[in-house]
Queue: 2 jobs
Job 1
Amino acid sequence: MAPAGLGPAARALSRYLSRYRARYALGIACLLTATASSLAIPWTVQRAIEALEADTVGAAIGRYVGLVLLLAATNGIARLGSRFSIMGGAQRIEHDLRNDLYAALQRFPPAEIARRTTGDLMTRATSDAGAVRSLVGFGAISFIGTIAAFVGALTAMVSVDPWLTLWAMAPYPILIVIAKRANARIHAETDAAQHQLGVLSSTVQEHLAGMSVVRAYTMEEHAARVFDAANGEYLGRSLRLARTMAAFVPLTGVITGVGALIVLWLGGREVIAGRLSLGALVAFNGYLAYLAWPTLALGWTLALLRRGLTSMARVQEIIDGAPPREATTDGETAPGSATAPRIGFQNLTFAYDDRGPALRDVTFEIRPGETVAVVGPTGSGKSTLGALLARLWEPPPGAVLLDGRDVRTLPLRALRGTMGYVPQEAFLFSRSVSDNVSLEREALDAARVRDAAVASGVAEEIEGFPRGWQTVVGERGLTLSGGQRQRVALARALAGNPSLIVLDDVFASVDAAKEDEILRQLRPRLAGRTVLLMTHRLHAAQAADRIVVLVDGRVVQQGTHDELLRADGAYAQLWRIQQLEEEIAGA
Amino acid sequence: MRDVEHDEILGRAFDRRLVGRLTRIARPHHRLIAAAGVLFPLIAAFELVQPFLVKIAIDDHILRADWAGLTGVAALFLAALAVLAILRAVESYLMNLTGQRVMHDLRATIFRHLLRLDAAFYDRYAVGRLMTRVLNDVEAVNEAFTSGLFAVIGDIVTLVAVVGAMLWLDWRLALVTFSLVPVLAAVAAWFRVRARDAYREVRRRLARVNAFLQESIQGMAVIQLFAREAHEHRAFRRLNADYRRMLFRSTIWEASLYASVEALGSAALAVLLWYGARQIAAEALTFGTLVAFIQYTTRFFLPIRDLGAKYTVMQAAMASAERIFELLDVVPAVQAPPATSRPAPTSAAAVEFSSVWFAYEDERWVLRDCRFAVQRGEHVAIVGATGEGKTTCARLLNRFYDVARGRVLIEGMDVREWDLAALRRHVGIIFQDTVLFTGSVESNLQLGLDGRVTRPDLDRAIDAAHCRRLVETLPRGLGEELLERGANLSHGQRQLLAIARALVYNPAVLVLDEATSSVDPESEALIRRALARLVEGRTTITIAHRLSTVQSADRILVLHRGRVHEEGRHADLLRAGGLYARLWEISARTQQG
């Protein structure tokens, strides 16, 4: 049943299933009990009618009535038991799968996550995990139930009358042949309709996204015509599918009906001939009716199983694709090095997967306690330096050093525990401002959070909010300005009291005056720490101990602000441009 | 994601106002609906025929040993099956036909409405959300028709018919069977309410899991940098476990509902058997009737059980309908005036900004008292630092937005008095990012004019835009099919096509929002020559993001703080040593790199 390529998914799934062996065993036992008690009801009715036939007045019908009630209760309880065990197991498997997926996501480098897009990952965590649940939940119940129903009902029918069973089942091969042909056609037509829905959807998407051109070139009529064509074609294909469904679906009803008809007609002859009791005939009809639903649902069940396995493969792709977990020491925060470290970049050349080198042969050093600014135009490779230092991307061996050790050989926890990294885009969680600064690190109490926010120059603004530190960031909470978000992110980094601070173009969204002010407040906090400051604003770099100028991934100049101005190279050129820009802004 | 969180999933199942509007949409298809209405009782009747024939077969033929008569009944049975199948096929097709046609119309209505909405609307709504309206919500409304309303009507008709048949066959036995109905209804309602509440809670918790997950994915760098993996994973596990617990609760109610209905069905059978046996003993009941009753009972219980599920479908559909109508009720902020007039031939400027104030939101003015005029045939370039409102000027010219104060005049007439289509035929814009559409190159060149452009005109435009070589290199020439957004062309090729498109469009006033991203030098040279041809003798406003191209303009306007700060020819402005001179120096130095 599993198509080629889904074998590994099936194996992975069986590992999850085996965790809940006991639940599934109980569930299957309940399912079998439920099927047996369901089938025992027609059997009891048969006995009751036979008793009536034999002796209409003296028949002890109460016994049979009691038995039917007992069987009904057993059936209800067993069915509940099977649902609870198997659906509960399926929900646990979905839960475990989603947890494992989340753990795997945490091991991916952020850039890899960005490449895969949030939407795709969300789909795997939600609808794919849901499809797996359907497979091991409803799919399993339905599949096992169908087998049990066929085995049970056929056994019961054969025990009543083997020949009649053969006749009653005669339409089923026809049903299977028709169902196969119908399914193939329905499948093809569904695909065709779905494909056209995709066309329709991209037509809408394209015109909505390009609405400015649509309006400017007065092509509304044209757009409406293009849409109508796609919409009309979709209608046509949907109706073709509807016609096929209309033709085939009632046909399956006819075929199961013919089974009942044959039983009535040939079975009736048997009763007339005295070879079969009326009760047996009625019971026989009951068994046959019991088969109708599983038969009709068979195609649906198989589709559910197939879809579930495909989804399992998609989830497993992420879980298996994650980099292995690094062996870490226990404890919440691994203590970083307490003293300011020395940072070295040694002939560092680095390229992202499929593009040209972002950094070429970069060599420079940051001495303990020194502040080095890396400047350069957008796209010169500044951010890449920081990402490699924090190992958000894996650097080449021996090229990025911390206190003389290759960062690749340091435990991630220790490396990142040493540094306070403020990325270019300040990402805040939809939690309270206080939690956003502390990230709920155990060692950080309210005083330290506040202290860090004061140093970042954002404490006063936060305390001015109606809910103060408990203000929830996000859509329904307060919207923070870009500058405020940046400073909260800065406070977050400072709060951990790191000995190495990496600032990646942090002040892009505040004006020059505000930037100067923040830097002034920050300076005492940075004393005694190693600082790597990446910026495209030269003002911010001016006070650094040393400035490294990066152009197209190469170090073109190094020195203090004054030295570089005198050298009249790339730095002096950038400086002049920024001065002109300031003049314009001030005009 | 946003939709999961913000759009209420279940609303009221029946909202008179919404149903009224839906009915109006379905009105053109009233014949189909009426036909379906006739079919429902017919189908219900034929469904009842089978158990009745079984009764006849048993009582009149099997128990009387009448084999020939039994064969006759069997033939009738077969005929009934066939008729029922045909009726069902017709009904299924009719229902789909109606549903699909209504959806088709609704999609078209929404799309046409979206075409009328203004730029400010599109600033507020993400394309993804609008897509949801056109596709998913329409689908949900269809569910309301087929799985909801039609199915409920079908079920009710069936119920009435079954009740009628049972009463007619044997009213006492029928009443005995019905004795369980109040129990069934109460049990179903009790479990259904709980299942629905649990389900609502499941959706809420799932939304929480999803929101957390989405945020984690987007903020993974922060989580990793601060080594918060274990902590976040614990938080996620809590939410995930919370969701699973609630899901299990909803399973409990749902499963209990099904199990209890099934058990009640069996109980009804027991009651029938007990009472029936006594009646048979008293010769007040036949075997056949008892068997027929057993079969009727199942047909009677299922619709009652499923009524609740259909209620939920209706609720979801109503929420979708509400969202659709909310969208359809948005009034376009920019509309053509009721009575359109054409500008009288005047000596007025081709374009004039008269004390224009404009803000995208509230009072954050982008243009403040902006004034300038462009004479017929003049080429004016607008320059200024980023965010000074250069592109905004272009958007006001063809009424993507309306001014807050002041007036924009074209040929001496306020743009708000122009017929909207005429205005946009008069003022053509070439945008920074070139948008091409799926379709042939030719249809992309003709855009809104399709069919009205002669082949020689098209050829002339292609030559003037230096597109001839480009078109010839395409395997199918002008008939070449472009992928979405012209993905199978290079950046430079797309720009050349956009220029050719503007030449075909041939507007009296051309606004050129210069592309900021650069292309390879060869394309650059081609584009520049093509643009020169386009501008020749035409009233042109160039929004210049790079200064290297503005020297040829008749006049340069320097926009600063929302108004024209300096104006003049390139050389004069340079000499003046003001803002323009500084911008020019930045541009020169940036190019040196």
Note: The mean pLDDT of chain B is 85.
Job 2
Amino acid sequence: MVQYPSRLDSSFAALSDATRRGVIEKLWRDDASITELAERFQMTLTGMKKHVSVLEQAGLVTTEKVGRVRICRLGRGALDEEWAWLERYRRMWTARFDALDKVVEELKRKERNDGRKK
Amino acid sequence: MVERSEPAGARHPTSVERKSDREVVVRRIFDAPARLVFEAWTRPELFRQWWLPKSIGLVLLSLDQDVRVGGTYRLVFDLGDSKTMAFFGKYIEVVPPSRLSWTNEESDDGAVTTVTFEEKDNQTHLTFSELYPTKEALDRNIGSTEGLPEQFAQLDALIPTLG
């Protein structure tokens, strides 16, 4: 059985917010400054700083001051178990539900062919 | 860098949320009325077409679903080397086309699964929830989702091709 470290709890709390999940997804593609993140998610610098701080405490994000800009990167925590855990679970359901889409489309098509209206 | 965003196209995204220590919720929208989506969950010949997408590579040996309150279900998978694995339990709520709930009795600390189908503007907003008796049970069961790590290795290989 896989053992989960206790910091998983803070990670899950950090990831319970849609904006913070969006930040992680964005950082997965590329590093970004807090200003860029604030603009992308249409919120104030202060608001974004708070989100980043929660992610930082959970080990999901690290920040580094480069000149006058604070750059955010994925932290170790986002690259290993807990992120993998949620991603893996989501992937399984994505695959399942994409398959379910096809089954449902087929049911719709049959209904149309049978000439029955909903 | 690996592309992490949703595949392009008309597919709706699937979201996963750990709602509490004991509960995980998956959400998805389908472009169909609830009665059709519900049908795909409750008719064995339809359910088996999507629950384990072919590409996962696991073979469903048998599927029995007696979808009524108190009715049982049982899925048996082939794990290779003549090993099999069974998942079973019973339906505790069956409310067509809006709600379905069942127990998972293959382990002592299995979840209660609840699926809701909410129809809005000819779309179905589906939620799939697994509520475990304890936090530890969730960590143990979801962490190794259905105890089939190889399934995910295959899934991981598959996902880039889905887009």
Note: Confidence is low (pLDDT under 50) at residues 1-6 of chain A.
